[in-house]
Protein: dCMP deaminase
Organism: Exiguobacterium oxidotolerans
Amino acid sequence: MDPKQEKWDTTWLLFAQMMAERHSKCASKSVACVIVKDEKPISIGINGTPSQHVNCNEIFLKQHGVFYKSINENVLESDTTIHNGEVFYRCNNQQEHHEWSKQHEIHAEINALGKLAADSTSARHATAYVTHSPCHACSLALIASKIDRVVYTTGYEYGDGLNLMRQSGIEVVHLPLTEQYFLEKILDKGL
Ligand SMILES: [Zn+2]
Ligand SMILES: [Zn+2]
C-alpha cells in the first residue's frame, strides 16, 4: 500500500478507536465508524441505543468476560460485583446482552450512515473506518450506500460480511492498528 495512504488510514482508524473507547456506552464492545470523503470526516457513528433511550451500560456490566446486570432477577442469591458504587448481579443467561443488544442497540456503521441520510449527504466513493469488521447486516448497508473502501482494525466474531463487500467491488482493508501504529512510532524515532 502507498505509505501516504497507509498513514492516513492509520490516523482515521486511531480516531475511530478513540471515539469508540471514550464514547461507546455498550457494556460489551466499543465500536465506532468514521466515514471519510475527500479527506474529510463526514460522519461518525458509535454503537449504542438511540438518544433518549436507556444505555446498555446502565443495565449491563462486563467484567473479566462475565456479564452482570443492574437488576437481580434471580430468586436465589447470585454473584455480585460493585461498579461505580452500584451493585450488579451475575446474569444467569450470558447470551442475554447479545439478545438485548440486537433489539436495542444500533451498530456504529448504521449510526454513521443514518446521520448522513438525515442530512441528505451521500457516502458514495467514501471510505468507512471501523474499529471492528462489519457484521452481515452492516456490510449490506455499506454496499447499498455505494461506499468505495472499508478499513477495519479488529476481526469481529460475527464479522461475516467481508466477502459480501468484496463481491460488490468494495476494497476491504485489514489494518491491525496497534502493531502498525507502534511500528510507525519506532520508525519515526529511528530506533
Ligand atoms: Zn451493549
Ligand atoms: Zn453491524
